[in-house]
Please model this.
Amino acid sequence: MINNSFNSSNTTLDSSDDIESVNTETGSTADDTSRCTDSTAKQGSLRRKRPKKDREPKSKLQFTCTNYLMEGHGQPIFGVQFNEIYRDEWPPLFASVGSNQISIYECSRTSPEVTLLSTHVDTDSEENFFTCAWSIDDELGVPILAAAGSRGIIRILSPCTHRPVKNYIGHGMSVNELRFSTKDSNILLSISKDHTLRLWNIKTDLCIAIFGGVEGHRDELLSGDIDFDGQLLISCGMDHSFKIWKLDNPYIVDAIEKSYKYDKKNKNDKPFKTYSQHFPDFSTRDIHNNYVDCVRWWGKFVLSKSCDNKIVCWKPNRLSTFDTRFIKTSDGHVTSVLHKFDFSACEIWFMRFSLDYDQKILAVGSQTGKIFVWDLDVEDISDARQLILTHPKCNTPVRQLGISRDGTIIIAVCDDGTLWRWDRTPA
Model:
């Protein structure tokens, strides 16, 4: 069902319409630099200019706002994700979740057009979706979408049929984030307010394992991720802590194998026994001093964010015996802080950053509508250049950003129910 009120707001912007170009070196706009009088120009000419080799190079990343849209519910959109399971014949697809609505869109590759393909409205008006994640049906070869929120029910939808095909109930409270394994398209991780993580097999509809308990989190979980090799989970939340759990643990490996072999239709089989893991393999509370609302693996490193206006890049365990940046944590483990990405106006929580598929672009929004983008395609992380994207009409909190697989499109979702499309332009 297409939301007509949405289509009426589908407005294409001219590249010169209300776009503020920000000079990242001076923090001024193009108009500010042109308001220089003759006298100040002469004074400036007497000052010693910095040698060219000392000047910071500009980022290779450049984006222009090309379109914005508004969803009919007008409520905050908490999550957005592009479909990264890519085939040449598939156009860029992304999903947004907010209020009790899940929407699926298609982006044109040749124009700024964004087309609403389908909308699922939950029958419970009190539902509020917080997160979504894409995977692929390995039998049919078509994309599938998982979404969840305040009711704690995980919905599995098929964009082909435009309707839910499965529901998973297990968490006692809301689900704040979903992540699929990159190594197994059937393995789904859910992060919940009930202080636990759950691992699901969506092919056999079984809960494989529950992570939490004695040495688990002590407060609401907000974010989590599975590393690229599918061997490690990381989780974080309101207790300021990070927990790392090994998926290559023999017990977990055995539970995953059993979940594929288990036949629910065979009445002679005993109920599937979900494995419980109470002790994480790594724990620390010393990276952030407030709620940790987003965490992602970046290779073997970790990127994490709290409501303190910075994203921290760190590594569990010590980098080397000569590294002076290591921190021995209160839990007896060791971490190495490598870099901090600073930005501004992001003191409220549940504002999540994003990485593109190749992990070369890092982006996060602020509570004033600004978008901060870093080019991670550098040899030294300290050389990552920051780009600030602004639009005068975008002035509410940007809850999350979706980045297309090829890194050419950024979709920002906001508290006022709007979506903003930014297209990459030649540097």
About this structure: The chain is about 5% helix and 40% strand.
